[in-house]
UniProtKB/TrEMBL annotation:
<protein>
    <submittedName>
        <fullName>GDP-perosamine N-acetyltransferase</fullName>
    </submittedName>
</protein>
<dbReference type="InterPro" id="IPR020019">
    <property type="entry name" value="AcTrfase_PglD-like"/>
</dbReference>
<dbReference type="InterPro" id="IPR011004">
    <property type="entry name" value="Trimer_LpxA-like_sf"/>
</dbReference>
<dbReference type="InterPro" id="IPR050179">
    <property type="entry name" value="Trans_hexapeptide_repeat"/>
</dbReference>
<comment type="similarity">
    <text>Belongs to the transferase hexapeptide repeat family.</text>
</comment>
Amino acid sequence: MPVAKMTVMRADSAAGLVFIDDGLEQPATVNGYPAMNYQDFVALSADKSVLIAIANSQVRERIAAKLAADAIALWSVQADSTVIMDDVSIAAGAAFSPFVTIGANVRIGKCFHANLYSYAEHDCVIGDYVTFAPRVSCNGNIHIHDHAYIGAGAVIKQGTPDTPLVIGEGAVIGMGAVVTKSVPAGAVMIGNPARPMVR
């Protein structure tokens, strides 16, 4: 919520901020902000948009579809300390925590979450519903497909313009993993160098 507040203040807006929690039967407060269930939020007469602040990417996608059906826009938030370089394209619904850096010529899909001290370097392509935990190091020329989760402190080796390193759809990179080669869709990778987790 503090990052949302920074975003509103930068826009010099009088917009109000609320939490939406479907577990609530009656309005309440969370950390001093009003909280309400989704139906009460939809019933508000004001223009509204939503940041989906939920880690599970599949749940984010389901909520985004529900918002679209109700003609409610996705909202992006960005901490004051976030640095975004030249020629960056970011789809709606992104959340950039403090001290995140996005390098030049990066393309980011919808509902991307970048947590504290993470970065994506130049010429990366990041799909929809991707999550970076804190301190992710995503070096240049990396393609990360939809629903991938990159764990805290993971390092992804730089690709090249003609052969980008690819993290497949739905892949999970464990915390502290060092990824030195492309990862197939759905794989769970751990260790240094990263290798498939044996289940």
